[in-house]
Specification:
Layout: H1 7-12, H2 31-37, H3 39-48, H4 60-69, H5 73-96, H6 102-121, H7 124-127
Length: about 140
């Protein structure tokens, strides 16, 4: 839906920003650039290993479809989490002027995914075992 607020999408919505990628000043910041082909993103994908690089001219949607079609279902969450972690690293640079290291982004990806999987393994009963009926409920 092109709703990710990349610089190109912001310019299309008449927000006065430069279209240039904040991580790699050589290209405009599109979804496919920031999440896949930006040198920083590319390094994250290579560091993770096992993912094919994208051919020129692919859209993010085409790349994602290819990735999902050629990986096991248990890897799909990792693909989404790597994208999310790259976006978080981008936002830390834009909003906090804090540059992230590739190894740190890959580490956080693994940590987030492990925590998410652990939470998914918990039953609803386990999640609410310490809740006393009526706590937090408004009358």
């Amino acid at each position: 839906n092109q709703c990710l607020p990349t610089r190109v999408n912001l310019v299309c919505k008449r927000v006065p920003v430069s279209e240039v990628c904040p991580i790699y000043n050589g290209e405009v910041e599109t979804v496919v650039h920031i999440l896949v082909i930006c040198p920083f993103a590319s390094q994250c994908w290579r560091r993770r290993g096992g993912f094919n690089q994208m051919a020129d001219g692919y859209s993010f949607d085409a790349w994602l479809k290819q990735m999902l079609d050629h990986t096991d279902k248990d890897v799909h969450g990792e693909i989404a989490t790597i994208c999310w972690s790259i976006w978080q690293a981008r936002n830390q640079l834009v909003w906090d002027n804090k540059r992230s290291e590739v190894n740190h982004v890959v580490f956080l990806t693994k940590q987030y995914l492990a925590e998410w999987r652990k939470a998914q393994g918990s039953s609803t009963k386990d999640l609410y075992r310490d809740v006393i009926p009526g706590d937090g409920a408004s009358s």
